[in-house]
Structure formats: C-alpha cells, structure tokens
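Hello,

Our lab assistant flagged a job as stuck in the queue for most of the afternoon. It eventually completed. Since we weren't sure the result was trustworthy after the delay, we are filing this so someone can double-check. Below is the sequence as submitted and the structure that was eventually returned. Let us know if re-running is recommended.
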Amino acid sequence: NFGAAPAPPPTDTVRLRLTNSTSYVDLRGPTTCALITDPEKQAIHDRLGPDPLREDAAHVTAYARISRSRTTIAALLMDQKIIAGVGNVYRAEVLFRHGIDPYRPGRDITPAEWNALWNDLVALMREGVRNNRIDTVRPEHTPEAMGRPPRVDDHGGEVYVYRRANLPCHLCGGEIRTADLAARNLFWCPTCQRK
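-- returned structure --
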C-alpha cells in the first residue's frame, strides 16, 4: 500500500507488477511468467509435489522420492516436482533448524528427520503466510532474547543463515557460508549443520 506516493521502481527480479490507485504487488523471481488456460494450469499442478500449505498434502510421497535419491537434500527441497513451494529462504532455514548438512544425499535422510523437516516446513510456511513475512528463529534466538540487533534486509524477518554469508552464526559464532546449489545461493553453518 503506497497511498498517494508512487510504487518504487521494480527490482531486476520483478516479473509482473499489479497496481491500482492505492497499492501494488510484485511477482518476484520466477523464471517464467505467462498467461495460461485452466487445463494448462491443471497440468502444472499435476506435476507438483506435495505442498506444505495444503492440509491434504501427502508428505510421504515426497519422502519416497527423497529417500531414493543421491541428490543433495538442499537441491531436492528446491525441486517443485518433489515438494511444492519451498523457496530458498525456507530451504536454508529448515535445514539449519534441524542441523542437517545441505550436501547430504536425500537417501541419507531418515524417516524421522523427514517428518521433522516436513512438520517444521508446514508450521513455518503457514506462519509466513499469516504474517506476510518469513521469520524462522525460535523464540529463544530472537534479537530481544539474545540482545542482538534485528536483521535489516529487504526480505524482512529474522533468520539463522539466509543472506548471512560471512557473518557469525547466532548459535555457535562460526562463519555462515554460501555456495551456488540448484541455481540458487545456499546458506549454511558448517558447524551447526553436521548431521
């Protein structure tokens, strides 16, 4: 909502901007943006894996594919055919929250680890929709609880590792790392994420 002031110029990741006289919304980041028919839309939906935002999502379907794969869990979490809707922020953060090395092959993720990851994604993503921002730090790790300054970033929200490369980890003090994985920047703490 921008009232009488104009919307800011779109960033280079904006693919579509919808505006009216009082507000705007940007679609950012997708590789494709196209108008499609209802049957085309259904065909796309049919190719997607279970979505943590849906009550009827069958997370066991995703695990069946993950548990057979040599691909890294970080890449699998970004594969929309395996699990729908998990973006780069949630990928980095959920792996950190569970101490899982992003380079572990999917086949090395145990059923208990997968259930914990899935349940956390469900809770985090639903909270993100409710609050219209992504916060992934647990209450004991908020800026107030830890006496640290709040995060300042255009993505907003408090996070553990996302976009924190070369900064100290909130938990261990080690350096957060970044690398390119699955065509996106991956962020992780090599000390906290060893499982």
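-- support follow-up --
The delay was a queue issue, not a problem with the job. The result is valid. Strands lie at 14-19, 24-28, 177-181, 184-188. Residues 35-188 form a domain with the Helicase, Ruva Protein; domain 3 fold (CATH 1.10.8.50).
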